[in-house]
Design brief:
The complex is a heterotrimer.
Chain A (H helix, E strand, L loop, with lengths): L3 H28 L6 H17 L5 H22 L7 H23 L13 E4 L2 E4 H23 L1 H11 L1 H6 L4 H23 L11 H14 L4 H21 L4 H15 L11
Antiparallel strand pairs in A: 1-2
Chain B lengths: L1 H5 L6 H23 L3 H25 L7 H18 L4 H23 L4 H21 L1 H4 L5 E2 L6 E3 L2 E3 L6 H23 L1 H11 L1 H6 L4 H26 L2 E2 L6 H14 L6 H18 L6 H16 L9 H17 L9
Antiparallel strand pairs in B: 1-4, 2-3
Chain C lengths: L3 E10 L2 E11 L4 E5 L6 H9 L6 E6 L2 E2 L5 H7 L1 E3 L12 H8 L8 H6 L2 H20 L15 H14 L4 E5 L7 H16 L3 E5 L3 H7 L2 E6 L2 E6 L1 H6 L1 H6 L7
Parallel strand pairs in C: 3-8, 3-9, 6-7, 7-8
Antiparallel strand pairs in C: 1-2, 1-4, 4-5, 9-10
Helix pairs in contact in C: 3-5, 3-6, 5-6
The chains are: A mainly alpha, B mainly alpha, C alpha/beta.
Chain lengths: 283, 349, 254
């Protein structure tokens, strides 16, 4: 039985993945394809919050809020200006991949390639007997819970949430019912990117920041939604949870090859039950 | 003018001209080392050629309706096979080279037989995962692959055949011709496939999988064939890469390289099995290299991404750079044609 | 041993039985009509025979060989070829290209021989091209040979679907509502062609809504309702059976 610290770490990792994966699934439902740039919004979020706190001196929570809005806007801009101009699943996929290079280059130019660190917003840690957890990490988990609850409320209890669900499932029918599909798609893109940015923000003090930190989160959130089932929101959450804990436990036991095991497990899952846990089977 | 052109009527010069013009670059490629021994130029061409081979494989798999992010993995397998056989086990170089393609092909066949059953996005994600798995194994299996430090490869031995004395270490020229041969062989094989019945079978699978299956086409068989062939040639390409760069490390064959291979195929034009990937790889590789010379850190990546995005936006759906050729041709041709035969209208589809 | 035999074939989707305990035989050379109101399981039946679905229970045998466990391409190779009700065509290809892509089963030469373009392959290929052009001519598609399928009217696109099925060298042709979306003349044309096809020895299974067509061309008719077979016999008799009329209540009958 791995020590409790590993479980905590798993929870923290899960939280990041859940937020990212949730955003990714939202975008997937409206774009129809995977947004490979998703990880970049994570990175940009972290970068801007870094500047917000260090250069502009804006307190962290407020920075985070603003960053979320900025990235939401950025995501919407990208969708409107670039993605909408490209037709065909394959090409949209290619464009989102190309944008990875674009954003990494931009960040390299402005931010530099060196790792930079952001001081802990919530310094200190909670002592729980045999181990301690930094408050920052607790904040990560807490934040994710807040986000999830907020998302639940928005999606299930608001009118706009209803529109979103409608567009995600059946855009044509939704438009016939008067839903402005274009607008809703744009909004969903914004929300998805915002979630990614917030994941980046909240993790910024925990790990180092450099232009390339978006890559692994994107791959992991992809794995998470695969486990949970493409297109399923609850799947994203469960997938994120499973992945986070698996990653933590694996790293503890077989550090070097942990990623290999993860990928192999995902491969086997896809071979045996491609629709994941909750996804609809695609023929 | 009219009379003069009439003299050429006996030749079907309308159909011939594009082919003649297309043959010119081929001859140029053959003769480049005659004109310049510049290492930089040859270097660019060699590496473009290597990626072109991988990109051609990607396009072949795409022709059967599948989207593989695994080409870089097979380059890695080929590269490491050759390196390990020649350096660690001391095999003769050409045997190591031959095995690089064979081993990649065999592994492709084995993996493909299992993984191609699921198809679609799941297949793509699996190939993505496999590429990363191979990279990580290469990184961690220190005893065999020397991990991130990389394996230093031995170049092919000198060849002495009568008047011919080829020294692979002297300059890039021998590798240039080796790459050229690989590109040519790959291109010819793929082109022939595209031209004959199997190409039609592949395309049927892409155009409408269900219909193709009900017309008697065994989907798995052809998917595996395409995947294996792509793997074989990617393996050879990887071997040349490893030996040309004199070192092979896990960093050069990861997921991001698979993604770049995909972009080369798309930008070049997916409708073309041979010319498209070659153009795409050459353009993107040279673009990448030229951009990396710029003094500002990061601008190369930014511009690279921007260029690809712009190309994808402005090229009409389903086309790539290769498809500009008929358009340009038709634009030029139309002027000539209008001049020559007044009164005849030419419909543009 | 019947030519094509269905034994207690059942297909369940969850709890819903799309087809339930259907049994019948098809004799070589006949034209068997399959009718029934919407949702009675006709297309599911074709999907089962062609291998697209596997039956939950029961077996399907062709010339003594159990085909219910085979893949669609294996079943097609044995000689059972189907058309599709929704327009299933090869996108963006010309008619002759589509036809050639569908004629894979006409070739006996191996893939390697085709790759090497051996003389044997080239001769065979010429023959196949000839067959393709002939088929196109038969179905009045010849004028559009080099044009993409999108230029065809809906009716002619269905015709192309039949041509594509013929290209696969069928012994048994399974037609899924071939005259849907056609006007009277086109439907007549299809009927004529079904007769011609049948005269060449091809057994035809015909799913149809249009009773006129069935009366004209079918030698026998099977009636389905809610997944079960409720009648089997001569078309004229079928139309007067009370069960059949009841199943169709609300829809047009001749």
């Amino acid at each position: 039985m791995p020590p409790a610290g590993i479980w905590i770490d798993g929870l923290v990792q899960s939280s990041t993945y859940i937020t990212m994966a949730f955003g990714m699934v939202l975008v997937f439902s409206i774009l129809g394809i995977l947004n490979w740039t998703h990880g970049q919004y994570y990175m940009i979020g972290a970068v801007i919050v870094y500047y917000g706190v260090t250069a502009a001196g804006v307190p962290f929570p407020f920075s985070m809020l603003v960053v979320g809005l900025i990235i939401a806007g950025l995501g919407m801009l990208v969708k409107k200006v670039i993605i909408d101009r490209v037709s065909g699943d394959l090409y949209v996929g290619a464009v989102t991949l190309a944008l990875i290079f674009f954003f990494e280059g931009l960040a390299s130019m402005l931010f530099g390639m060196q790792d930079k660190g952001l001081a802990n917003v919530l310094p200190g840690s909670l002592d729980l007997g045999t181990f301690s957890v930094s408050y920052q990490k607790i904040a990560v988990v807490g934040f994710t819970l807040v986000v999830l609850i907020a998302m639940y409320i928005v999606l299930n209890r608001t009118k706009i949430g209803l529109s979103i669900r409608a567009v995600a499932q059946e855009p044509r029918a939704a438009s016939l019912y008067g839903v402005r599909v274009e607008r809703v798609s744009l909004l969903v893109m914004g929300i998805g990117c915002m979630l990614a940015a917030w994941a980046g923000c909240i993790m910024a003090p925990v790990y180092a920041i450099n232009p390339f930190i978006g890559r692994m989160p994107m791959i992991f959130s992809l794995l998470a939604i695969v486990i949970g089932g493409l297109g399923s929101l609850s799947g994203a959450i469960i997938g994120g949870l499973i992945l986070g804990f698996l990653n933590s436990v694996m790293t503890y036991y077989i550090s070097y090859y942990s990623e290999v095991v993860l990928f192999v497990l995902v491969i086997i899952l896809l071979l045996v039950r491609p629709q994941g846990l909750f996804g609809a089977a695609l023929k | 003018m009219n009379v003069w052109l009439n003299r050429f009527r006996t030749y079907d010069w309308r159909n011939m001209w594009p082919k003649v013009v297309a043959a010119v670059p081929v001859i140029i490629f053959l003769l480049i080392p005659v004109f310049t021994q510049g290492e930089i130029v040859l270097n660019m061409l060699i590496l473009s050629g290597i990626w072109a081979v991988a990109a051609m494989g990607f396009t072949l798999i795409l022709r059967t309706g599948q989207f593989s992010l695994g080409q870089a993995a097979f380059m890695a397998i080929g590269g490491y096979t050759c390196a390990i056989l020649t350096v660690v086990l001391g095999w003769p170089w050409w045997w190591g080279f031959l095995l690089s393609g064979i081993v990649s092909g065999l592994i492709a066949m084995l993996i493909g037989s299992v993984v191609l059953r699921v198809g679609g996005i799941y297949f793509s994600i699996i190939t993505l995962s496999l590429t990363e798995v191979i990279r990580i194994i290469a990184q961690q299996w220190e005893s065999v692959t020397h991990g991130s430090r990389g394996l230093i490869t031995t170049p092919p031995p000198n060849i002495d055949l009568g008047p011919l004395h080829i020294n692979f270490m002297a300059n890039s020229v021998p590798f240039y011709y080796l790459t050229l041969i690989l590109v040519a062989v790959t291109g010819l094989v793929f082109w022939q496939i595209g031209k004959t019945r199997m190409g039609g079978t592949f395309y049927a699978m892409l155009a409408n999988q269900t219909l193709a299956e009900h017309e008697g086409i065994h989907l798995m068989r052809y998917r595996v064939i395409a995947f294996t062939l792509a793997g074989v040639f990617a393996g050879f390409a990887g071997a040349i890469y490893a030996n040309y760069l004199t070192v092979i490390s896990p960093l050069i064959f990861g997921l991001w390289q698979s993604i770049q291979i995909m972009m080369m195929s798309i930008v070049g034009g997916m409708s073309s099995l041979v010319a498209g990937p070659i153009i795409g790889s050459t353009v993107l590789y040279i673009l990448g290299i030229q951009l990396s010379r710029l003094p500002i850190y990061g601008i190369s990546q930014l511009l690279y991404g921007a260029v690809v995005v712009l190309v994808l936006i402005f090229l009409p759906k389903g086309t790539g750079l290769i498809d500009l050729w008929p358009r340009i041709w038709r634009k030029i041709y139309r002027e000539v044609e209008d001049y020559e035969i007044p009164g005849e209208t030419r419909q543009e589809d | 041993m019947a030519f094509l035999e269905l034994d207690d074939v059942t297909k369940l989707f969850g709890k819903l039985a799309a087809v339930e305990d259907v049994s019948f035989n098809v004799d070589q050379g006949e034209v068997l009509g399959i009718v029934g109101p919407n949702g009675s399981g006709k297309t599911t039946l074709i999907n089962l025979i062609s291998g697209y679905y596997k039956p939950t229970r029961g077996t399907i045998s062709f010339m003594g060989k159990k085909i219910s466990v085979l893949r669609p391409d294996e079943i097609a190779k044995l000689g059972l070829v189907r058309t599709f009700q929704s327009n299933v065509l090869y996108e963006k290809t010309t008619l002759v290209q589509s036809m050639l892509m569908s004629s894979r089963l006409q070739y006996k030469t191996s893939d390697i021989e085709s790759f090497m373009e051996t003389k044997k392959y080239k001769d065979e290929h010429e023959g196949v091209v000839g067959n393709v052009l002939q088929t196109l001519q038969l179905l009045d598609l010849f004028n559009e040979t080099f044009r993409p399928a999108s230029v065809l009217s809906h009716g002619y696109q269905r015709m192309l679907g039949i041509a594509l099925a013929l290209a696969a060298n069928p012994k048994v042709l399974l037609l899924d509502e071939p005259t849907t979306g056609m006007n009277y003349e086109e439907a007549q044309f299809v009927v004529e062609n079904i007769k011609k096809i049948n005269e060449q020895g091809i057994t035809v299974l015909l799913i149809e809504h249009n009773m006129k067509v069935l009366l004209d061309v079918a030698t026998r008719v099977i009636v389905l309702s809610f997944g079960s077979k409720i009648a089997d016999g001569n078309p004229h008799e079928m139309m007067n059976k009370p069960e059949v009329i009841e199943a169709y209540l609300g829809t047009e009958t001749v």
